[in-house]
């Protein structure tokens, strides 16, 4: 565990109940200084509630929240020194942009010149230097978003809390703002908690992703980790396109598990796979194999990483062209598999008989409850 | 050809509304204007024609001016008190997490189901010499003689507040409930105390409702004659009481017509000036 002084926010066993309904439970999480941590999960999983508890906008039922090593459970909102950006921006409609941005500075004992200078610099940082005299209603959604960010960072908060700040923007603008937001966060070096249900955003921006479901953390890790090494079926299915195959352990030898995939209907020959072990498995144990759709390669074998290559045959039943990639539905060993491959000169067609390749490192084995072995 | 038909269409579609309006509003108003130039003779008959006597009487007799100022004064005090007293329940209803918000609003409407006259009369049972308040005070031995709580300016203002508060509360409530809760949250995270956030965010944003409610209270308060009639003394007559006197008691319709026009012009001017100051859209909100 990191030194306390390097931790911007620490949640310890935090819980939130609304009456008898548990919105958040067992949240234990460290947000290191300067890091960008994303809470990712489906609607209603408790992301906003968690963020609002950190901000003090929601009381906590149990547990402890500490900011910069100081317990803040009893600290009122206005003394927490946090920058919050709300999903709908929440700009004050009756104040000019300059007054909006300067709002938090009024409580920070600055003289007028310094305050004006800070506002100017914050607006420059979000690249909207010439809108001081306008009102929020006269700005576009993307501009309002930037102003909300400027208002939050101008007070030099200890932590930046962002609740789906990009979700109200259209797709192109969202991509731009993603880059902007990340640039600003890096320039300020400020610890940031970002809430989203968009996996693309989470994977692109975060140092650490916290995947949540039903008020609980499912997995914490780098984007690479949660994407490639999901620790539960929920995480694997929430992020990207995955195949889930029921299988039985046939053999375990030096780090490799040999598995017989349960054949589907039709009495096809079952596929046999060798997968790098990620736990302790017993012969005969029933497990689930998670294979990312992009990890299955049609035709050409991927470069080996030292482990054995699995090769098996299948028939393409459907092709879904997506521009850069094609999504194939392949029937192999009585199972329907999803395969996403870049489109090269010779994309496979419906009815083609193809060879599929899978590296032993490119799959994850979960127990039959859908979790990794511990 | 078609453009001519096109240009006529809005008027065609508006005609039922315009017809109803002219029949119910413009025509009677026209009659009142005409009437105000008639004259009531000593025999009690109305004499048609163009006589300025009613208008001369109004403009030269200070009695009317005093009562007009008194009316404005009472309506103004009532409006300010309604704004202060009404804001609190409006704020509560808008911000409560109670499930029965609709019930609270219904309770607010409940008084409208009882005649305004009966509601006003009920104050006699409360404040009268034999009323509840005096009874309690005498039973407790605080006073020996019943206090004269009725038939003065405070009792008129109290009665008017009783009548007008729901209008104020509803208008402020509508304004308050339209404020995004995240605005106060944002102000708080930026460093504002709960009261600071109220002053800087909630209060300014609820101004439209407060303004609309105030206008409604003022106009309705300044135009009433029932409350001063029932709860006021001889010195508490308001302008509408004069109209009531002239038309119902003295049967002097021409004078009543002239006084009605005075009140209409005064209140109309208030609405217009207010509308210019506060923005027209806020006024239109207050009337629905
Ligand atoms: N004030 C409240 N009273 C009762 N239940 C609440 C309250 N606020 C939130 N909840 C419940 O708590 C759960 C978590 O809500 P939360 O807003 O944190 O979800 P979220 O992850 O932010 O979802 P979304 O992506 O839709 O914003 C939901 O089931 C919600 O219905
Ligand atoms: Mg949310």
From TrEMBL, chain A:
SMART domains named among the record's database cross-references: AAA
InterPro entries, A to Z: AAA+_ATPase, ABC_SmlMolc_Importer, ABC_transporter-like_ATP-bd, ABC_transporter-like_CS, Mo/tungstate-bd_C_term_dom, NA-bd_OB-fold, P-loop_NTPase, Transp-assoc_OB_typ2
Keyword ATP-binding appears in the UniProt entry: yes
GO MF assignments: ABC-type transporter activity; ATP binding; ATP hydrolysis activity
SUPFAM superfamilies per record: MOP-like (SSF50331), P-loop containing nucleoside triphosphate hydrolases (SSF52540)
GO cellular component: ATP-binding cassette (ABC) transporter complex
Membership in a protein family: Belongs to the ABC transporter superfamily.
Protein name: Putrescine transport ATP-binding protein PotA
From TrEMBL, chain B:
CC terms in the record's Gene Ontology section: plasma membrane
Keyword Thylakoid: no
Protein topology in the membrane: Multi-pass membrane protein
Gene Ontology biological process terms in this record: transmembrane transport
Alphabetical keyword list: Cell membrane, Membrane, Transmembrane, Transmembrane helix, Transport
Xref: PANTHER family: INNER MEMBRANE ABC TRANSPORTER PERMEASE PROTEIN YDCU-RELATED, INNER MEMBRANE ABC TRANSPORTER PERMEASE PROTEIN YDCU-RELATED-RELATED
Record-annotated ABC transmembrane type-1 domain positions: 68-274
Localization in the cell: Cell membrane
Species for this entry: Caenispirillum salinarum AK4
Listed PROSITE patterns: ABC_TM1
Annotated transmembrane regions: 12-38, 67-90, 102-118, 155-176, 210-231, 251-275
Gene3D superfamilies, A to Z: MetI-like
Family as reported in the entry's similarity comment: Belongs to the binding-protein-dependent transport system permease family. CysTW subfamily.
Entry superkingdom: Bacteria
Protein name per Swiss-Prot or TrEMBL: Spermidine Putrescine ABC transporter permease component PotB
